[in-house]
Every structure is written in C-alpha cells, then in structure tokens.
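User: Hey, quick favor. My workstation is busy. Could you predict this chain's structure for me?
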Amino acid sequence: MVDALFEALGGDRYLPGDTARGPWSKDSLHGGPVAALLAGAAEGLLDGLHPARVTVELLRPVPVAPLTVSTREVRPGRKVRLVGADVATEDGTVVATATVLGIRLADVVVPESRPVSPPPGPDTVEPALRGGVAVRDDYDAFHNKGVEHRFAVGSFAAKGPSTDWIRLAVPVVAGVEPSPLQRVMGAADFSNGVSHMADFEDMLFINPDLTVHLHRLPAGEWVCLDAESRYEPHGVGLAQSALWDEHGLLGRALQSLLVEARS
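Assistant: No problem, here it is.
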C-alpha cells in the first residue's frame, strides 16, 4: 500500500490507502480525504478562479475500494463559475459529490478588516500523541496517521470547543503535491471530531455534509480549526470552525450533524 490517501490507478480511478479510513468504521473513508480528492478534481475546471465555496455531500459511506472521480461544469462564467465532481464505486453508485464556486481574482482597493487575535501557532504547541486519541486507534486511519494534530486549546480526549492545527502527513494522491485547497478541505472535516460534546463510544455525531467558505487559500502546510459543536435534543447538530493559517483568517467551515445515541 502506498504512503498516501489515494493511489492513482489511471483513467480517473483511485484506490484508497489505509490512512484514508475513518473513525466510525475501518471499512469506510473519513470525509476529509474524500473532500480533498473531490476538491482537487473540481478545481481543475476553475481555470485560475478562486475557490470561494466548496460544498461536499457525503451521500453514502465511501468504501475502501477502487473509486472513480468525474467532473462537470455546472454554471460557466468568466467572473463566477460553478463546477462539480462526483465519486462513484465500481458499480457506478455515486457515494459523494462536491460543488465548487469560483470567483475571479482582481486587484481591488478594500477597507481594512477588523483585527482579530490569532491562535498560538503550531510551533508553540506539542504534537498530539497517537495514543491520546479518544477515538478508535486499533487501525491506521486518517485521524491518527494521515494528519498531524497540534492542539492549542483542548484535545481529542476533552469535550467541547478546541483550537487544533492540522497538516497532512501524507499526500492526497501518491506522487502529487497537495494543493492549498486540498489541504484546507482535508483539515476542515475534523470540525465535529475535535469539538465533540459527547464521548465517541456513547454517541454518534456524523456529518453528512461539509461546506467551506474561503476568502483566501492557506499558505504553507498548517491549517487551524477554531472549532465548536452544538447538539440539539431533536437529534440535529452543527459543527463550525473559523479557519486560520499562520498569516491570519482564511474562512469558515460548517457541518450538519446527525446526532444519536449508540445502540
């Protein structure tokens, strides 16, 4: 198995690696690698436009099996363009889809934004130890081997909001340098996991979607999630994160949550 989230098989086909697995089951993928793969495919249709919004729908569990990625132009445009990408299994079943909204880049004189205090940088905090992860650690997966976590606030073991610096530990596709968009999409899907309000063994809080709004792309390998989750007693929740790099704010990430007690 290659040391990457996916191995390219040719013809838009990809084989997931062990480090793409998710925390809920070793037989399905984490949303982060799927989001990064979809975003990387879709951004090829933007022709230099800025990816201002990426919305990923996780329609079904994505299996650890060969997958096919297809892309499409949804709305053409010179200043605003909408493109899409799908992930399908070998039998043609679409298991995840993404739309990416592109906006043209231009030099514009704008008012100064309100200053905000940045979180402590990744070099000021210690790496999270694999043995300290409060979710399944009995197999290699994205959360414990595919990325590196450095918590400035909170931890995997602690409930509640957290501030977590994340970077990819392996490429998205073997032999290909991850794009800035892929780096931020891989990190953003951790919002619900790093800000969980209940123990993983007691409750499910699964995100069937991920929406990321970006006013700029990250510089460098590290992306920070200032994350918080809320659960409602009717079984619906929301995880949200302010996204940072070492130069400042990037945007926001939102995840709808299906919340229920484990049977």
